[in-house]
């Protein structure tokens, strides 16, 4: 009896597992736990018979003085623990590296015609077949090596054990294995493999475990690392990551195509997962995939804060929030980027008319199909964007919030464009109350729409009073965020002849809106900005408590959404900050820290 093998765990396998767990814990969802539990169970069940065979046939052995004693089918307890901890650690690393990726955007409908995606359909089929041939070849080679019963036996046993699983996983999930960024695929295989190669070198050198000489090739990758051990760890980590990719591929299919799979449970059964993976890629809803990609790209390009926040949401809520963001962004841009006042007014009228029409005809399962049709006609000059609008889940959202948002956009048009002198300018935001009403319309509504999606996806059992309380706190939070937005964009808005600071405040400082247009960075403007930020933070303080009333899984992500935007306000209060395209920004590392703290609560 000895503790040497156990010490390998204490020193080398447990610390990275604990470290990764602490790091990932705030992001851990029920689906993650289910996924990791599923993978660990399969890994243990698949490895026990094989490992037991190797030990019983003395292909590898453990000196009795290095293990504590208990065994299962001759496998030492320490070895069983190895299967668990390796699968667990590699899984958590994979989850961590994949969190930011919006995986549904990587699904591909394989049809005859070519698309603007990275791989065309012929390539997809070729890659799939090439991979399958590779793994079939490996199986044949493995059989050959075992049959020879010589120095290649151990290598043959590794290959013959792993290749059929890899063939299966490849056949089911090749789209994700090939299409996802390497940070999600290659990296979670390579990092633990290199680490375990190092640990294995130490263990073999110390004699903690021994490969018998007649069954190994005798090739060393480096001094102390047998080629079989190197292949073993590379293969097992590949199995774990391919397993996770297949799981995520199935979940992405279930989440992306409600028309094909209806209302799927948050923790889908293994049968449902397999059903999803077996659905031919030619049946995927191509338009929906394009809309998912379009919405994800828009968010990534347009808002660093909400992009970061969206990666902390999961499942169908993340999908719906992306579509909501897309709609809001496109609608706002249509108004802001219109070349004439008439064009902007027409856009608002069209948006209003189409929404009304769609709500009149909606049924509980429909997305805004006909709105989409009208949009295509109406938005020939704004092609990027109209696709995503067709997916907006209107039946989960109140019409009045959209109507109020459009009223807010209407307010933007009351700014004269372009003014030729001070006398020409009309100023729609005269009082603090005007400002609050405006912020409530453009941002309070956004908050309430986000919360409606949260209520829907978590099937929250709130009373009307509780729901009302959370919604109105959310709306206040939207106002706080909008104030930060206005404080940040004083100069940018001035370029568009807009001054959102209330005229009454300007008067108190001895300023006119015209002065702001001419010098948006002047010292007295800074005082007004501070005043607006103070308002923003006091509303934020008053509303933030309501986040804790949301369902547990929504709290962290909501805090991230709010905090990463409020951090812009904190940056603005500092002496020096980075400005990009005229807007103050939060440096990436700082944004990550804010998100991390927000997730921890
Ligand atoms: C992850 C996540 C929450 C994503 C989706 C959020 C979403 C749907 C945002 C829509 C943004 C948008 C384009 C709205 C149009 C009107 C507008 C311009 C509003 C301003 C946003 C500014 O975004 P940005 O800086 O990118 O815009 P410009 O470059 O200036 O054009 C706003 C400041 C409003 C954003 C408000 C919210 C997202 C609401 C936040 C509040 C909650 C989520 C509720 C919190 C809950 C409780 C209970 C307190």
Automatic annotation (TrEMBL):
Pathway(s) annotated for this protein in UniProt: Carotenoid biosynthesis; phytoene biosynthesis; all-trans-phytoene from geranylgeranyl diphosphate: step 1/1; Carotenoid biosynthesis; beta-carotene biosynthesis
CDD domains: Trans_IPPS_HH (cd00683)
Domain of life: Eukaryota
Transmembrane segments: 6-24, 36-55, 80-105, 126-146, 152-170, 177-197
GO biological process, one term: carotenoid biosynthetic process
Topology of the protein relative to the lipid bilayer: Multi-pass membrane protein
Listed GO MF terms: geranylgeranyl diphosphate synthase activity; intramolecular lyase activity; lycopene beta cyclase activity; squalene synthase [NAD(P)H] activity
Transmembrane helix in keyword set: yes
Record's keyword annotation contains Isomerase: yes
Subcellular location: Membrane
GO cellular component, one term: membrane
Catalysed reaction, written as an equation: gamma-carotene = all-trans-beta-carotene; 2 (2E,6E,10E)-geranylgeranyl diphosphate = 15-cis-phytoene + 2 diphosphate; all-trans-lycopene = gamma-carotene
Gene3D superfamilies per record: Farnesyl Diphosphate Synthase
NCBIfam families: CarR_dom_SF
Family membership noted in the UniProt record: In the N-terminal section; belongs to the lycopene beta-cyclase family.
Full protein name: Bifunctional lycopene cyclase/phytoene synthase
Species of origin: Mytilinidion resinicola
């Amino acid at each position: 009896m000895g503790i040497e093998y156990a010490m390998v765990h204490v020193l080398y396998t447990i610390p990275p597992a604990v470290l990764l767990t602490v790091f990932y814990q705030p992001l851990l969802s029920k689906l993650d736990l289910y996924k990791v539990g599923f993978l660990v169970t399969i890994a243990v069940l698949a490895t026990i018979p094989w490992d037991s065979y190797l030990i019983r046939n003395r292909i590898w052995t453990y000196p009795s003085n290095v293990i504590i004693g208990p065994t299962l089918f001759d496998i030492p307890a320490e070895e069983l623990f190895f299967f668990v901890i390796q699968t667990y650690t590699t899984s958590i690393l994979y989850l961590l590296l994949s969190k930011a990726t919006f995986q549904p955007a990587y699904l591909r409908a394989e049809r005859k015609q070519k698309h603007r995606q990275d791989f065309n359909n012929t390539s997809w089929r070729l890659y799939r077949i090439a991979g399958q041939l590779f793994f079939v070849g490996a199986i044949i080679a493995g059989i050959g090596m075992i049959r020879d019963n010589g120095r290649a036996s151990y290598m043959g046993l590794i290959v013959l054990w792993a290749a059929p699983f890899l063939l299966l996983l490849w056949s089911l999930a090749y789209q994700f294995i090939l299409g996802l960024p390497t940070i999600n695929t290659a990296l979670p295989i390579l990092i633990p493999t290199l680490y375990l190669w190092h640990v294995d070198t130490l263990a073999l050198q110390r004699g903690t475990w021994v490969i018998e000489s007649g069954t190994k090739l005798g090739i060393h990758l480096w001094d102390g690392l047998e080629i079989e051990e190197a292949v073993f760890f590379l293969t097992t980590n590949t199995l774990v990551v391919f397993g996770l990719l297949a799981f995520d591929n199935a979940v992405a299919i279930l989440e992306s195509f409600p028309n094909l799979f209806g209302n799927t449970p948050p923790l889908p059964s293994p049968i449902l997962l397999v059903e999803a993976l077996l659905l031919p890629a030619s049946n995927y809803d191509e338009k929906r995939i394009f809309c998912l990609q379009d919405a994800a790209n828009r968010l990534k390009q347009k808002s660093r804060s909400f992009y970061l926040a969206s990666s902390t949401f999961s499942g169908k809520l993340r999908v719906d929030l992306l579509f909501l963001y897309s709609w809001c962004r496109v609608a706002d841009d249509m108004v802001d980027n219109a070349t004439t006042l008439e064009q902007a007014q027409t856009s608002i009228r069209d948006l209003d008319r189409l929404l009304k029409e769609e709500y009149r005809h909606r049924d509980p399962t429909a997305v805004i199909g006909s709105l989409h049709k009208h949009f295509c006609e109406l938005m020939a000059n704004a092609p990027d964007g109209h696709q995503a609008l067709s997916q907006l889940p209107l039946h989960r959202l109140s019409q009045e919030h959209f109507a109020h948002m459009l009223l807010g956009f209407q307010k933007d048009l009351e700014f004269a464009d372009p003014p030729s002198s001070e006398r020409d300018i009309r100023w729609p935001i005269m009082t603090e109350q005007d400002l609050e009403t405006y912020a409530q319309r453009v941002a309070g509504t956004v908050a309430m729409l986000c919360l409606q999606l949260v209520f829907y996806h978590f099937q929250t059992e709130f009373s009307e009073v509780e729901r009302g309380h959370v919604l109105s706190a959310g709306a206040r939070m939207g106002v706080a965020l909008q104030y930060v937005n206005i404080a940040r964009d004083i100069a940018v808005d001035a370029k568009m002849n807009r001054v959102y600071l209330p005229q009454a405040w300007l008067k108190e400082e001895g300023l006119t809106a015209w002065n702001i247009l001419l010098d948006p960075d002047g010292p007295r403007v800074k005082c007004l900005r501070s005043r607006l930020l103070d308002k923003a933070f006091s509303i934020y303080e008053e509303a933030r408590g309501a986040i804790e009333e949301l369902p547990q899984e929504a709290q962290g992500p909501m805090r991230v959404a709010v905090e990463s935007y409020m951090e812009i306000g904190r940056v603005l209060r500092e002496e020096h900050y980075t400005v990009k395209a005229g807007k103050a920004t939060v440096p990436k590392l700082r944004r990550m820290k804010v998100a991390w703290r927000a997730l921890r609560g």
